[in-house]
Amino acid sequence: MRLVVVSNRVTIPDRHEKAAAGGLAVALREALERHGGLWFGWSGVVGAARQLRETQRGNVTYAVTDLSEAERESYYLGFSNRALWPIMHYRLGLTEFQRSDYIGYLGVNRRFARELTRMIQPDDVIWIHDYHLIPLAAELRRRGVTNRIGYFHHIPWPSADVLSALPFSTTLVRTLAAYDLVGMQTEVDARNLIGCLVDMCGARTDGRRVRLGVRETAVQSFPIGIDVEAFRRLAAASVRQAATPLRATRESLGERKLVIGVDRLDYSKGIVQRLEAFGQFLQSHPDERGRVSLLQIAPPSRSDVPEYAELDRMSDEVAGRLNAQIGEFDWTPIRVVKKAYSRTALAGFYRRAEVGLVTPMRDGMNLVAKEYVAAQNPADPGVLVLSRFAGAAQQLGEALIVNPYDTHEVAEAIRTALAMPKSERIRRFEALYHVIETSGIHWWTQRYLDALTRSPVEAEIAEPPRKVDAPARGTSRKPRAAVLDRGEVKGRPVPAGRKRNAVPAESGHLTLVR
């Protein structure tokens, strides 16, 4: 079996590049190297030339193509990021639909399918990633590709009543029936997709398998993870490095406690609401003033989309107002840093922070939550405050789960986290670490590929991973020892064991009908 991975963007590694710790790209690269394979997608370059370019790295072929400016505007900035992204995150008021963008979106998927078809071998297993490429399998089927094709959706999938507000959504949803397996981050997302196929397209379902036309598609949740051990090592290494952003942060903070948020500057992340909640915390608990600061790292993204520029302005305005109202000459309550940091630096920040504030308004999974847990000092861990609307909340039940729309609730959760006794922090940490370690990125990759490569006859959809409770006191395995920082013991915790007029799905033909 050869593995073919298709994603919107493909970065070709340098011959001497060392893989960074964790990350989806690293896990997919490892799977490709293990099976031998092909990684296909957009080069990230915008230009007139669109010829396919191939680069060999070991037994992996990287095949990339450029986009024209018109394609980038319609396919990427337009339909993908101004229509699909907001509606998938339940932000109907921000959803902008232009028929020309939709035509461009279909056109790029059609071109990708044409180029990819020439490269596919009979025994290839094809794994397509994310919302930019939803119709790709239907276009491949239209060209006669009979290989097993899977799709993984990295962001939330909304309910049918939300998604149906998007023009041509029924046609788009029907194209998912061209896949053998559709993976979602959570059980809620999987149920929502099955509901869309049934309510919007008239599909029949039997548990986790959906029949539409002549095809049967499995829908299953696969909560994505991180490389826990690698990220834990990064966090420990950051402590020992002589000149790091972490050291400067320590010197700046002194004995003050740190609350941290790390997100792309995106309206789905709830950054403005988070700043307001931290301000509410300090106003409600004046005894905490001067004793704790919030560091919000928010590297810009999609700055050429107007909504993101407005978010940039609003975050500056809120942070400035709160600092002026609450701050002192020797204490800045909120620091907003709009730049990217290395993974090593981020791991160090997480380790230093007594509270990890992960409060998106909606998220497919949110790996920052898992990275925060992985980075903690087992002997003196911080506390994770987590939005109920992040996919990770369905796994990480020992975090403090909050409603990000309720600033008072988030503010009180910050207070609870800062006042939590060490014994309770350790108990919660051990339970959370067990979850992330037993459902890491390599487990996720192998579990998905195992499900995809099973034949329809033998495919029996496995039960989704359940939220793991804390190990009973006295039975959890403890970390091994050697002091590093804050009384840390060196080492890591040992694992504790309905139908509308649309194109028939079997044709895979994408035409503009509703």
Question: How would you describe this structure in keywords?
Answer:
Rossmann fold, disordered C terminus, 10-stranded mixed beta sheet, 16 helices, alpha/beta, 16 strands, about 15% strand, 6-stranded parallel beta sheet, about 525 residues
Structure characterization notes:
This protein has 514 residues and is α/β, with parallel strands linked by helices. It folds into 2 domains: 2-221, Glycogen Phosphorylase B (Rossmann fold, 3-Layer(aba) Sandwich); 228-438, 3-Layer(aba) Sandwich (Rossmann fold), CATH 3.40.50.2000. Helix content is 39%, strand content 17%. The protein is built from 16 helices and 16 strands. It has helices at 24-35, 69-88, 99-117, 136-142, 160-163, 169-175, 187-201, 228-240, 245-253, 271-284, 306-326, 343-352, 367-374, 407-419, 422-438, 441-453, and strands at 2-9, 37-46, 53-57, 60-67, 124-129, 149-152, 181-184, 204-206, 209-212, 215-221, 257-262, 292-297, 334-337, 355-358, 383-387, 400-402. The chain has a 10-stranded mixed β-sheet, sandwiched between helices. A 6-stranded parallel β-sheet has the order 13-12-11-14-15-16, sandwiched between helices. Helix 1 (24-35) links the parallel strand 1 and strand 2. Helix 2 packs across helix 3. The two termini are 39 Å apart. Mean pLDDT is 86; it is low at 18-22 and 459-514.
